[in-house]
Amino acid sequence: MATLHPEVTWAQRSSPVDADKNIIYLTIKAPDVSKDNLKLDLTSTKLSYKGKTDKGQEYGVEIEFFEEIDPTESRHHHSARATECVLRKKEKKEEFWPRLTKDKAKLHWLKTDFDKWVDEDEQDGPAPEPEFDPSMMSQFGGGDDAGGFGGIDFSKLGGAQDLSGLGGNATGLDDDSDDDMPDLEGDKEKEGDGAAAIPSEPTAAAPEKGKAVIEELD
């Protein structure tokens, strides 16, 4: 069975000062590859991927990067659908990479990830929300099986909101929000002991002023 070339999508962020915002989003779409049948190697200049499904279909791809990345600060997450990577660019700079690969060539299997892509002058907007728990990402080389995101903080990328200023109520509403509720119509009471008002004039049912008649039962 011939080895298939998986589809690869990518997007990026850049920053001259913040390494956490100087990254490549890379997704290798090879479905039904188990973790046990996956080999993923990353160096500062190249990524190599090999995978096999339970039915014996093999996938493979090698990507030589436009510039160097930092493997120790890069992470990946593998699922039954794809392998998603966050690669840390080694050099901090304001400009985007003009392309992902070292060689300038048209590659039919390499596409822009428009769900994650932003223009260079719009990078301060919200970061894409991952479809998985970022804490479940693993370090390349298997040195971080317990997860850990290696310093890449999605909150710094704008993908999370800080709720610390809302106190103990994450909804932003005061716990005593019913204190200012208006009185219901017809339910107002006199000040004092809270008893309902009694008619001041006698009626047929109340011949004596201020007193109600209690009728005996037969």
UniProtKB/TrEMBL annotation:
Residues 208-218 have a biased composition (Basic and acidic residues). Residues 140-151 have a biased composition (Gly residues). GO terms for biological process: chaperone-mediated protein complex assembly; protein folding. Signal peptide: none annotated. Residues 3-101 form the CS domain. PROSITE patterns: CS (PS51203). Residues 115-218 are annotated as: Disordered. GO terms for cellular component: cytosol; nucleus. One of its GO terms (molecular function) is Hsp90 protein binding. Residues 195-207 have a biased composition (Low complexity). Pfam families: CS. Residues 173-184 have a biased composition (Acidic residues). Gene3D superfamilies: 2.60.40.790. Belongs to the p23/wos2 family. This is Prostaglandin E synthase 3 (Cytosolic). The gene is PTGES3.
